[in-house]
Amino acid sequence: MNDAENRKMAGQIEVICGSMFSGKTEELIRRLRRAQIARQRVEIFKPKIDNRYSESEIVSHNEQKIPSTVVETAEQILLFSAEADVIGIDEAQFFDTYLVEVAQKLAYEGKRVIIAGLDTDYRAIPFEPIPQLLAIAEYITKTLAVCVKCGAPANRTQRISNTGDRVLVGATDLYEARCRNCYEPPED
Ligand code: ADP
Ligand code: MG
Ligand code: ZN
């Protein structure tokens, strides 16, 4: 074993965040595919709450997809990642703050952890645990959508249905991308 092999691989945390339709899942899939091409062992997770389009795949709004494991808790990610070099997690805003600890543990084991999630909810309020993950990440990518009203870069998710629940899973029928100027805060 040479020096480079002997030295423990430095792990890292990457966060891809932004509003809905901003290309988070697309970018996550792109990075994971490249890791697979490099013959790294890749494990991909999504929370059980997100059953849009497909039960066991991560699917982007432009219909890119990659197989994934559905988990109910962040702890399960730890259990299923022992052999992995690279760990991808989509819709991270649906996990609780224990995800922060899980990401740290994996990175300290020398793994590359790539996390995608909404940085704000439909009220434009930071969506934990993404802010906490941003604080500890080595690399951060903020993706922007296109405002459906004016075409400007959009960082907000407008809910176009009247429910007060923070979590309401859906796509184009329930949400649209809006810029700061075109976004209308909900009344509740
Ligand atoms: P996210 O995971 O951030 O919700 P996806 O990666 O699933 O986003 O989808 C990104 C794709 O969504 C874009 O490449 C584009 O084809 C499509 N799309 C649909 N509406 C919009 C919009 N308003 N702004 C940007 N992309 C959009
Ligand atoms: Mg997505
Ligand atoms: Zn706009």
Task: Describe the secondary structure blueprint for this structure.
Blueprint: H1 3-6, E1 12-18, H2 24-37, E2 42-47, E3 57-59, E4 65-67, E5 69-71, H3 74-80, E6 86-89, H4 98-108, E7 112-118, H5 130-136, E8 139-143, E9 145-146, E10 153-154, E11 156-159, E12 175-178
Parallel strand pairs: 1-7, 1-8, 2-5, 2-6, 6-7
Antiparallel strand pairs: 3-4, 9-10, 11-12
The structure holds adenosine-5'-diphosphate, magnesium ion and zinc ion (ZN).
Descriptive notes:
This protein has 188 residues and is α/β, with parallel strands linked by helices. It has helices at 3-6, 24-37, 74-80, 98-108, 130-136; strands spanning 12-18, 42-47, 57-59, 65-67, 69-71, 86-89, 112-118, 139-143, 145-146, 153-154, 156-159, 175-178. The protein has a six-stranded parallel sheet, sandwiched between helices. The chain is globular, with a radius of gyration of 17 Å. The mean pLDDT is 90. It binds adenosine-5'-diphosphate (ADP), magnesium ion and zinc ion. Zinc ion binds next to loops.
